[in-house]
TrEMBL record:
Organism ancestry: Eukaryota, Metazoa, Chordata, Craniata, Vertebrata
Source species, domain of life: Eukaryota
Tagged with keyword Oxidoreductase: no
GO CC annotation, single: plasma membrane
Matches recorded under InterPro entries: Leu-rich_rpt, Leu-rich_rpt_typical-subtyp, LRR_dom_sf, LRR_TM_domain-containing
Species per Swiss-Prot/TrEMBL record: Cettia cetti
PROSITE patterns referenced in this protein's UniProt entry, alphabetically: LRR
Protein name: LRC66 protein
Amino acid sequence: SECQWDGQFSLNCSFTRISTIPDVSQTAVTADFSYNNIKTFVCSDGRNEEWMLKHLNLSNNLISELSLTTCTNLPILETLNLNGNAIHTLTLDMPTPARGPKKYSITDRLLPALKVLSVERNNLNTVPRGLGLLQSLQTVHMSSNAIQQIDPKDFQNCSQLKDINLRNNKITKIHPLAFRDLNKLQVVVDLRENGLTIPLPQILVSLNFFQLEVYLSKNAW
């Protein structure tokens, strides 16, 4: 293919018109598949071979649905860029069983090193459920989607989260406890260009005002 491989750590397949992910060397640290015609992405092919990728760029493709529950073969992935696709469903957690307790035998190992998840300019209408399973997650960018509200469980167990970008969505409601227990939020909560009308203190009731930048301009109040 027209992909460029440096022979050791970096694979660049951007602007190559590919529609499927080519084989990736297990030594690759960075893989760029941006600006192509990729419609599907499956992390594991069942062979349980671990990739050494730290940075994966799938931005500006044609992906509409994506499940990360099979991504047990990316143990050191730190950044995942999904910007500019058509994603309306991003699955992180497993379905709750009809009987018995919920088990996370697979998802306990879900992208354990992931620090940055970027899903900007897609078609999400809710925050993906199960973000708390990404135990190292520090940054979530979900601007320019169609998210309508923030529920109390959306950021549950996201104990390492520092930066949330929800700019330019359709958010009209934020539960007062939506950001509860996010003690490490210290960079930005960006809620510009939404449809908020609720009183400001309800949104910020549990945030650390002294370390945090909160952007709320261009809302409906």
